[in-house]
Specification:
This protein is α+β, with helices and mostly antiparallel strands and 200 residues long. The protein contains five helices and nine strands. β4 and β5 form a beta hairpin.
């Protein structure tokens, strides 16, 4: 006696699996939308909100900017391009350690600034002196740095400030003011973070 044959569904019940696609990840317009990587996804909408890290050197080609790390967030996907917005930066930890050698004083700050077009950013600059200095001078330097950066920020649009922060422009500006208080070796913009807009 022959066994009954097992029924097999053909065609209708079988779904074709969607293949993953590559999407070019572009830097924000502040950085001329240079390609900073690629992302693989089944659904481009799943890329929205993802953070992408790169170095400034990858965008400019300048090897002296390898230590400057940039963070972008994907905000939309158009065709095969994932467009981003700048959300912050930081300096490589080994670069910071080289600056803060024994005998030098590192004066840290952390505060919020607002651009001309109303975008808020938290910035974290630091000042390096050649030797240890009095507490009163440290406070004076910290106050000057905050005043100068706040004034500088409110006179500039967001994209202008971002470029000044990640380059040496803003740090150089502060250096010219602070060197009148004490012997300054260097000023760096250690970190920045774009703050979310407050919903009304």
């Amino acid at each position: 006696m022959s066994m009954p044959k097992k029924r097999v569904s053909v065609g209708k019940g079988k779904k074709k699996r969607k293949e993953k696609q590559w999407y070019k990840v572009l830097a924000s317009p502040d950085f001329d939308e240079k390609q900073i990587g690629e992302a693989l996804a089944y659904d481009p909408n799943k890329l929205i909100g993802k953070k992408v890290n790169t170095s400034l050197q990858n965008i400019t080609g300048n090897l002296k900017q390898t230590h400057i790390k940039l963070t972008f967030r994907i905000k939309e996907v158009v065709g095969s391009e994932a467009k981003t917005q700048f959300v912050g930066h930081s300096l490589a930890s080994d670069y910071v350690r080289r600056l803060t050698r024994k005998g030098r004083k590192k004066i840290d700050s952390s505060f919020e600034v607002e651009t001309k077009n109303g975008i808020k950013i938290r910035v974290k600059p630091f000042v390096i002196t050649f030797k240890r200095i009095q507490t009163s001078k440290q406070k004076a330097i910290r106050r000057l740095v905050q005043e100068e950066i706040r004034e500088f920020s409110k006179e500039r649009e967001f994209d202008e400030l971002v470029k000044a922060v990640v380059s040496s422009e803003l740090a150089t500006h502060c250096y010219g003011v602070c060197k009148k208080v004490a012997t300054i070796r260097r000023i760096e913009m250690w970190k920045s973070q774009v703050l979310p807009a407050v919903k009304s």
